[in-house]
Amino acid sequence: MTRTNRWITLAGTATMMVVAQVGIQFAGAGPAAAVTGIEKVTSPLSAVDSQQTHTARAQCPVGKWVIGGGGWAFAVAAADSAKVTLVQLFPEHRTDGTPDSYVVTGSETTAAMTGDWWVQAYAICASRSGLSGYQVVGTGNSATSSPAELEAQASCGTRRAIGGGARIVNPGRDVALQISRASVSGDIFRAGAHEDADGYAGNWTVDAYAVCVNQPAGYQVVTTASAQSDSEAEKIAFAHCPSGTRVHGAGAAISNTAPGGVSLQVVYPANALDSVQAFAVENTPVSQDWDFIVSQAICAS
Asked: Stretch 63-72: mean pLDDT, rounded?
């Protein structure tokens, strides 16, 4: 089966999993305002070649701030489809007059990767005037050790994460993202990464980022599991916002039972901002079951 056909087959299965979608709406202390001027911005493709890493930035229009986003790592040849991973997905809020952006970096997972590949970034942007309590919170960890796996969380306190991201510092080819998502209540945004099965001698760490705001109208975090939950080589999940709401932030995660060598390749907010797709692969064959993955849509009116 070709990679394209596998994607279609997985997507067809996932559409039957809407019943597994979970969304919890939280009531605020008073009337909540809607976020205004929301739009998705897609970056150009990064360079398409066989460099170890590629980075892309999706820039918000002047007068708008980044509230969330996603990314895609893609190998051109089907034979190389499992040899790239996302290693950074994070919002970049600027105070120097330059545009906000959502930054995405991907990496090869093996030195044997010689084919061309690329990454693309997706920013979700909104008008400043509708972002009460806006702040981008990051953990700022230092790469001083080499754990097999590591998690971080950025807290919004009494506010809510409307979006966020995750960033591995010094991943080499041996550390990949497995978690970039909000908590069920949306008070924190989590990041997680794992070394591959062969381990990694370098020091590395992972940072979490939360885009915090006062809770907007219709706020809810919708999380949907993949249909695949065993040892499949690829897994896909879709999260859909309820009617009357739109995607403000995107997330995804692999089960915490997953070993190294399994990673996120796609966190994709749809152009209509009505859903989010997540896609994960085995970068090297894994015999054990690594359970389901989840896609996450942070929705609001």
From this structure: 97
CB 224 within 8 A of CB 20: yes
Q: Is the dihedral of CA 129, 182, 208, 262 positive or negative?
A: negative
Closest CA to 84 of 202, 176, 151: 176
Write a three-state SS string for the chain.
Answer: CCHHHHHHHHHHHHHHHHHHCEEEECCCCCCCCCCCCCEEEECCCCCCECCCEEEEEEECCCCEEEEEEEEEEEECCHHHCCCEEEEEEEEECCCCCCCCEEEEEEEECCCCCCCCEEEEEEEEEEEHHHCCCCEEEECCCCCCCCCCEEEEEEECCCCEEEEEEEEEECCCCCEEEEEEEECCCCCEEEEEEEECCCCCCCCCEEEEEEEEECCCCCCEEEEEECCCCCCCCEEEEEEECCCCCEEEEEEEEECCCCCCCEEEEEEEECCCCCEEEEEEEECCCCCCCCCCEEEEEEEEC
Do residues 182 and 161 lie in contact, with contact meaning Cβ atoms separated by under 8 Å?
yes
Distances from the Cα of 3 to the Cα of 71, 238, 296, angstroms: 19, 18, 24
CB 188, CB 226: distance < 8 Å:
no
d(CA 37, CA 134) in angstroms, rounded, equals 15
Half-sphere exposure of 225 (CA within 13 A, CB side): 11
Question: pTM surpassing 0.85?
Answer: yes
**Is the CB of residue 293 less than 8 Å from the CB of residue 263?**
no
CB-count exposure of residue 158 (10 Å: 0-12, 13-18, 19+): exposed
pLDDT 10s digits, 215-249: 999 999 999 999 999 999 999 999 999 999 999 99
Contact 139, 195 (CB under 8 A): no
Which of 10-14, 77-81, 143-147 is least confident? Answer: 10-14
